[in-house]
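Morning - 2-oxoglutaric acid inputs below, output right after.
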Amino acid sequence: MPVERRGAMSLTEQQLESYRTQGFLRVEGVFSNDETDRLRRLVYRLYRKFQPDDGELDGVDAAWDDVRFDRKMIELRARNPRAFGALYDCAQNSIDVLRFVTDPGVREIAAQCLGDASENLACSGIMYRMDPPKDDRNAIGWHQDRAYYPQNEDGNQGLVATIALQDIVADTGALVICPDSQRAGFVAPHTAGKADYESTEQKTVPAEQVDRYDQVHNEMKRGDVTVMNMNLFHRSGVNLGERIRYTALCRFHRILADDYVPFGLLYQFNDFLSGRIRKSRNEG
Ligand SMILES: O=C(O)CCC(=O)C(=O)O
C-alpha cells in the first residue's frame, strides 16, 4: 500500500472511543507483508555479519523466515550472547527500523489517539525486539511505559506503538494487557535495575494494583499496530513456540504539551560493542 494512502488513514469514532475507554487500540493491516518482510530480512543480514562462516541457509528461499534460521539465532544467543547482543544492538540503529516505526500510517494513528497533529509528536524508545522462545531475560513484568518514558509527565499525553512482524498469539508471546487500567494514572513502580547487560530493567506495577483489572492477550496479525496509553498496565507474554517473536516499537509524545521534557537515555550495556568503542577511542 503506498505510504501516502496509509498516511491519510483516519480512525473511526468507534476506534477512538475504544482507545479512550480501554487505553489501547489494535489497528489491523497497517503494513503489507512486503514491508514487514523487509525488516525481517535485516536480521538475516546481521546474522551473516556476525557469523560470516555460517552460510548454510544462504541459497534458501526466504532464509530469514525459515525455522532453521530461528534455531540458528536461538543457538547463537546461547553460545555467544555477546555476538547476539551486538546483532540486536545493530538492528536498533537501522535506518529502516526508524523509518518503519515512524511511518506516516503509525504516526497518524498515534496522532489521532492523542488528539494532536502528527507534526507535533516526538518519538523515543525505538526498538526492534527479538524474543526467543522460553527465554524471559528480556521479558518485562507488569509495567506502565510512563515509568520508563517520562517525556510527558501526564501519561495520557503519550503512547507506545507495537507492530507485529509475524502473527503473534497468546502462546507465542502476545502482550498481556489490563484494559482500562490507564485510569489508575501513574502508579509508583517497584524498581529493580538490570541484572546484567542481557536482561531488561524492571519497573513493576505492584501486584495489588494489577489484580484490580481483567487481563487479555493482545493477539496480532503480521502488519497490525497496537497503540497503548503510557499509563496502561501491560507485560510481556510468554513465548512457548519454537520461533522468535519479532516486534518493532516506538513511543510517541506530544511535544507541544506543557509537560513535555526532551529526554534521552544513554544506553551502552553491550560490552562487546562498548569494548569496540573504547578501542576506537584508544581507551584500551
Ligand atoms: O514486547 C514485549 O514483550 C514488551 C514490550 C513492552 O511492553 C514495552 O516495551 O513497553
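Note: The pocket of 2-oxoglutaric acid is lined by residues 129, 131, 140, 145, 160, 175, 234, 236, 247, 249 (CB under 6 Å).

O.
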